[in-house]
Amino acid sequence: MNQQAAMQSVGVSVQRSDAAAKTSGKSIYTADIELPGMLHAKVLRSGKAHARIVSINATKARRMPGVLAVLTRDDLPDGRPDSYGYFIKDQPIVALDKVRYEGDVIVAVAGVDEGAANRALATIEIEYEDLPPVPDMAAALAADACELFEDAPLAMAPAYGLGASGELRPAKNVCYAFRYETGDAGVFDQCDHIFEDTFEFPRMNHFHLEPFVAVANWTDDGRLEIWSSCQNPFPVRKELARLFTMAETDIAVQVPFVGGGYGSKNGCKNEPIAALLSKMSGRPVRYCATIEEGFLINTQHAARLRLRTGVMADGRLMARQSEIHLDAGAYSDGSPLVAEKAGYRIPGPYRYHHIDSVCHCVMTNTAPAGPFRGFGGTQATWASESQIDMIAHRLGMDPFDMRMKNLINAGEPFVPGESAIDSDLRQGLELVAAEIGYHDRQRKPNRGIGVAIGFKDGGGVNKPAQARVKVSTNGDIFLYCGTIEIGQGVQSAMSQVVAEIMCVPPGRVRYMAVNTDTTPFCQGTNASSGVAVMGQAVAHAADELKKQVLDFAAGQLQCAADDLRLDDWSMLKGNERFSLAPMVMGHYGGTGFEFTADGFHKAESDHGAPLETQCVFWEVSWSAVEIEVDPETGQINIEKLVVSGDAGRAINPSVCRGQDEGSAVMGIGQTLFEEMLYDGTSLVNGEALRYRVPLAQDLPESFISITQEQGLGPGPFGAKGMGEGGILPIAPAVANALEDALGVRVSGLPLTPERVLDALNKAKQ
User: Fold this and answer.
1) What is the CATH number of the domain that holds 340?
2) Which residues contact 189 (CB under 8 A, 6 or more apart)?
3) For the residues 544-562, what does the mean pLDDT come to?
4) Which of its termini does the chain have fewer beta carbons within 10 Å around, N or C?
5) Residues 173, 363: contact at Cβ < 8 Å?
């Protein structure tokens, strides 16, 4: 990429291209799609947690007025795949032999409206044979536990490199295990102290405002059209092609604006049911889940993390051994990927001589768990950053000083075979500490200050990205790439990258609608990969396009391309300006021409890297918090919160700031309120009014976000990805501040008044 282009667009907070449509209510989401003759789907979900299905009687439902299709296990096509998933194909389109959690889909109905579908569902009769429930990880791992999957589903384990390994079904009710080990375990014998602590992390809901929704239309010529609220349309297309034994050319997945996903909208969700009902009825079908159903479709993993850390008397970290159990729920979904990330990220941004991490995905009769913003980093950072403070206090050290002593240097590999850290970790920590007044504060009763660092590998593993840019005769630019606008402002940022390289105002670049028929391939919108991975593909395409235009103009003006400069679709040659449109029409004819270029990016495969390719970039975030705690009630009030992330180079500073602040607010919810509560296998707070998320009144009185631009990123103009990092350090920073305020440690989230009071009572005893 030509880094010498005059800065015109990058680094400027231009108005987002989707702002007008979204603020006026005119923006189109999948839930807004309406096709002629469209039917509406509803599903019958299991009220049993674990039971064999003896029989399903849907005779009355099929005869109900306004019902055009009923889907049960008996209606699935013979000889075709009937289950889907990431690496493990274990989630059936509708329940087959048995149900595995309260919420499992058994029957789907398509009616002329949702009322007709719901009335039909009420007539369905199901006979069950109860099986022993497995409500939690302890029960699932017990020797006498009932097995959720007696037979192994179709599955594969990804390849790993130096020190890493994965295993399918290593134990009963464990669908996957990831392990990473480096260094000599004998390092523990050299340590002056070894500390062992256990941390609990709750199950959470993604709570995106747009529900899970898909619209399917099976056309007369046998083609399947899908409109989906998903984050990865190309993998969804591939999975649908496998399920229905179709060519991918016969499936088109279109994704309009997505109203939030936070990881949950990866992979198939509503699409297979909508597609089958459309096939059966011969009509378009819309399947839109309610917010309450969303609690049963995908969640964040609950976790139990045991850390054993060896240190020297002067605070030097030497070795860390960790054992993590993730509650995968009834189906594997993205659990193997989350296990990989939780196990890999558990050391945090610190230098160790020995690391041994193992993470197990445990299956239970609860809602399936999958990717969540931070992708295993939320669980790992909670435990790691909490224990760093705990160790510091035990050694009589300041937690800030202990971090500064052990942080990995910029330019130093995270672990052997891995890429180098691309942020100055100490600089960021100093920044938030200074802003909170860490070093010069006056101690006040019941008030405390805490710091923490969020740290994760970013950009996805071995992730390819393609982009296409074309420019019309009049200089209007069309950008095609598969990164989904999910609220993060990616359309504006990508358009700014193209505008910068092509030397035009951002308003001349249009981000084209995502359709798998015409959009170049993208693996998915996740892992903060938009600018860092797809951005490089976009920049390569724009650079090639610019070269084509310069070469063309050089031929027309009979000079060298180096003698010309592109400026808002004109060529500058010395003091002369030449409009490109007349040149193009003069050469290609009055109808003109479009120059087109493609770009591609993928990190090189590297068997010496633990995850088979080196990390694209390191997403780092720092947080400092001041809290006040009421020792009589246990209530925590966040008085001041400072968050900071390193954007490398901020393409659009206001968008970067919004990502950090929104992520931090989600972190507040994770810290103080959010938890899916189960009574055995029954979810008791799975509705919007009973699931507590942060309100305006919960925001800190002082909320400061600082976007750093350390300039070491691999993306266009030195950019790095943002979006996930801000959530990671909030919970441990608050827990650390709680210990600073009252001298008690709470090792389980959320930090509710009850947990704080319990810790105080135990301390008194």
Assistant:
1) 3.30.365.10
2) none
3) 97
4) C
5) yes
**What's the whole-model pTM score?**
0.96
For residue 703, name the pLDDT band (cuts at 50, 70, 90): very high
**579: helix, strand or coil:** strand
Residue showing tokens 């949702």: 114
The Cα–Cα gap between 71 and 739 comes to 55
Sign of CA dihedral 631, 637, 640, 642: positive
Q: In the structure encoding, which two tokens stand for residue 219, read together?
A: 């056309």
pLDDT band at 12 (very low <50, low <70, confident <90, very high): confident
Taking only Cα atoms into account, the Rg of the chain, rounded to an integer number of angstroms, comes to 27
In Å, what is the CA distance from 339 to each residue of 328, 369, 377, 419? Answer: 10, 11, 10, 21
Domain membership of residue 195 (yes or no) is no
Of the candidates 410, 386, 408, the residue with the CA atom closest to the CA atom of residue 399: 386
Which class for 54: exposed (0-12), middle (13-18), buried (19 or more C-beta within 10 A)? exposed
CA-to-CA distance for 368 and 666, rounded, in angstroms? 21
User: SS in 3 state form for 509-560?
Assistant: EEECCEECCCCCCECCCCCCCHHHHHHHHHHHHHHHHHHHHHHHHHHHHCCC
> How far is the first Cα of the chain from the last one, in angstroms, to the nearest whole number?
64
Q: Among 9-13, 512-516, 667-671, 684-688, which stretch is predicted with the lowest mean pLDDT?
A: 9-13
d(CA 686, CA 703): 30
Indicate if the pLDDT at residue 2 is higher than 50: no
The predicted-structure confidence for 235-281, as pLDDT tens digits, reads as follows: 999 999 999 999 999 999 999 999 999 999 999 999 999 999 999 99
Take residue 370 and report the two structure tokens written for it: 């999958």
Q: Per residue in 500-519, is it b (16+ CB within 10 Å) or e — as a string?
A: bbbbbebebbebeebbbeeb
Structure-token match 């989630």, residue found:
91
Alpha carbon distances (Å) from 546 to 432, 475, 562: 41, 11, 12
Q: How far is CA 80 from the centre of its chain?
A: 31
Burial 331-351 (b: 16+ CB within 10 A, else e): bbbbbbbbbbbbbbbbbbbbb
Please enumerate in sequence order all residues whose Cβ is within 8 A of that of 59, keeping only pairs 6 or more positions apart, or say none. none
> Between 233-243 and 271-281, two packed helices, what is the crossing angle to 10 degrees?
50
d(CA 73, CA 261): 29
Helices marked H in 417-489? 425-436
C-alpha span between 37 and 216 (Å, rounded): 12
Backbone angles phi, psi at 654, to 5 degrees: -65, -35
φ, ψ dihedrals at 449, nearest 5°: -125, 140
How far apart, in whole angstroms, are the C-alpha atoms of residue 325 and residue 634? 29
- Integer CA distances (angstroms), 527 to 231, 371, 532, 625, 676, in order: 11, 10, 10, 26, 24
> Into how many domains does the chain fold?
3
Q: Tell which residue, 664, 64, 26, 744, has the closest CA to residue 393.
A: 744
Residue 751 lies in a domain: yes
Is the same domain home to 632 and 596?
Answer: no
- Residue identified by tokens 């995106």 is 208
> Which tokens in the block code for residue 464?
């390819």
Residue 285 domain flag: yes
User: Does one domain contain both 79 and 217?
Assistant: yes
Domain that holds residue 325: 302-461+608-764
pLDDT at residue 723 tops 90: no
Together in a domain, 591 and 613: no
Give the pLDDT confidence score for residue 6 in this predicted structure.
Answer: 44
Q: Does residue 579 belong to any structural domain of this protein? A: yes
